[in-house]
Backbone:
């Protein structure tokens, strides 16, 4: 029971934070968009939007705990974790936007380009980081070798 | 506790005389063995005396401590903090809340994006040194 609570508590907490952020984002961007375009802004949030938000944030939080947490995957390097997380997160977004939120399929091409750019950017940043850390690792290993010789 | 040292012998021999073997006596026994660079451990009910030079790392799983050599895994009835105290001067370092690693057995180090360090030990196994203990390892190696 304690293990289950320890697993669920951070998921619930992170999902709640994301949901709060999502609602704030919805309200702020909505007001700004309405004021910029001169349209009326509806200050009520549709109930279905809250339900969809809860489901999506819970899935993201679960994915984060499974991939980036240390409970199930203990010995993966961060690069591998973040890359897996990004791929699964993008797949989750794609499924959610097309199925869950029923975005028109005419947007699919644009969405695929956006995913592609994000994927390329993420891979490039973490790929360069990985190269840097491997180089640093060689330096650490050399220091370790000297340390062992002096023992 | 009465301690008596008698000189004039070729080998060091320690005899513990007590009313009953308690946890404190076991601890004393382990400390003496650690000083002799050996650790008592068991495997399938058989007791072994393992040289600390053969130990790769210690790990606690479900409150049970294990000792890993390149070929075998043994159990030992000591808490990790006791092992840490016993072996801190013998080249062992805490690598996470549940692991103590033999520095001499690390063959490769590689830092991670999250501040952890991946340590490859002899035999190729990879262990993760958590962020908290990575800092201590770096201090010990003199990495700034």
Residues:
């Amino acid at each position: 029971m304690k293990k289950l609570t320890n697993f669920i508590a951070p998921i619930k907490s992170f999902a709640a934070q994301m949901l709060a952020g999502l609602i704030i984002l919805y309200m702020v961007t909505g007001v700004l968009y309405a004021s910029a375009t001169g349209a009326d802004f509806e200050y009520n949030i549709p109930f279905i939007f809250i339900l969809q938000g809860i489901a999506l944030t819970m899935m993201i939080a679960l994915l984060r705990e499974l991939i980036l947490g240390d409970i199930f995957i203990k010995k993966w390097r961060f690069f591998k974790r973040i890359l897996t997380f990004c791929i699964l997160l993008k797949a989750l977004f794609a499924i959610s936007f097309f199925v869950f939120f029923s975005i028109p399929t005419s947007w699919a091409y644009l969405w695929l380009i956006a995913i592609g750019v994000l994927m390329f950017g993420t891979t490039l940043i973490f790929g360069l980081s990985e190269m840097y850390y491997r180089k640093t690792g060689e330096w650490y290993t050399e220091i370790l070798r000297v340390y062992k010789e002096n023992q | 506790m009465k301690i008596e040292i008698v000189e004039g012998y070729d080998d060091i021999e320690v005899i513990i005389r007590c009313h009953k073997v308690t946890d404190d006596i076991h601890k004393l026994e382990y400390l003496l063995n650690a000083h002799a660079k050996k650790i008592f451990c068991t495997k399938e009910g058989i007791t072994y005396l393992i040289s600390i030079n053969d130990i790769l790392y210690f790990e606690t799983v479900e409150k049970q401590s294990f000792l890993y050599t390149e070929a075998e895994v043994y159990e030992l009835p000591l808490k990790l903090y006791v092992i840490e105290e016993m072996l801190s001067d013998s080249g062992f370092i805490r690598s996470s809340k549940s692991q103590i690693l033999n520095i001499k057995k690390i063959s490769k180090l590689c830092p991670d994006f999250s501040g952890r360090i991946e340590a490859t030990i002899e035999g190729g196994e990879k262990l993760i040194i958590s962020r908290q203990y990575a800092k201590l390892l770096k201090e010990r190696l003199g990495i700034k």
Notes: Chain A has a mean pLDDT of 80.
